[in-house]
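Sharing in case it's useful to others searching the archive later.

Someone asked me privately for the predicted structure of Probable carboxylesterase 2, so I'm posting the question and my answer publicly. Question first, with the sequence:
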Amino acid sequence: MDSSSKPELVTEFPGIIRVYKDGHVERLIETGFVPPSTDPQTGVSSKDITMIPESNVSARLFLPKLTSPHQKLPLLVYFHGGAFCVSSPFTPKYNSYLNALVAEANVIAVSVNYRKAPEHPIPTAYEDSWAALQWVVSHCNSKGPEAWLNDHADFQRVFLGGESAGANIAHNLAIIAGNPEFGLNVQLRGIALVHPFFWGSDPIGSEALMDPGKKSVLDRVWPFICPSNPDNNDPRFNPVAMDAPSLVGLGCTRVLVCVAEKDGVRDRGRLYFEALGRSGWMGVVEIMETEGEDHGFHLSDLESEKAKDLIKRLAAFYNGDMPSSL
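And my answer, the predicted structure tokens:
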């Protein structure tokens, strides 16, 4: 093939995604698919469902080993990471992580597969995730289409959780849930934000000293996934921006923010924790920092002690126990 006939590259995030002028998108990571199963290590069962056929919003459901046929469990609606443009609940990484988390926490989990940018730019990920949450909540009277949720989900204990972009989604859905105009039929108990993908136009904390290449990548993500409003101070990306909705309206009563010492977005997670604490919001917010680790470290090494500590802290949160230190 001569060079003139090669497709023209218009956008690239090295090692993550390439977009060509003809519209072709090449995802370079996390494209694998693991079928649902009963995990031999944990005994957690999983199955895939389509929630909203019109938009092809789907999910993987996870059910831990039950001690009784009518056991009711906390319900976790989970959103994966991947900068809003890569990955899914069906990759080996997220499937293994949810098996481990569901087994440790003894929760039923719905891992949502929202549509990805750039084919489906923001706000699609939020709209899909909100629609998925509403679909889940439609089971609160035990008359929804999914038996696992009807039989085993405790709608008095509903949590949102996610990593990175998924943590961003969990925050934004909790803001919507707190608005009486859009609210849900159930009260969210809490949200757990692991390495939340928040950013902003102006550097804070250690960001001014960040490697310029790394900072450039972070600066470019939001304009890439949200061309309709490419401002890094978009309130969905920067929840403490001047025109962001007040955190006092966050629609849950408990929040856990988890950050990692070497993570480029660590200070954004810390700032969110501090801003929520002084906003007048009436809930309880706690923070956990993992020393010596980077963004999403636990997903690639579930057997490490620090990954196990993080999963134990999340399990305690989903079961109503918020230790002041771990």
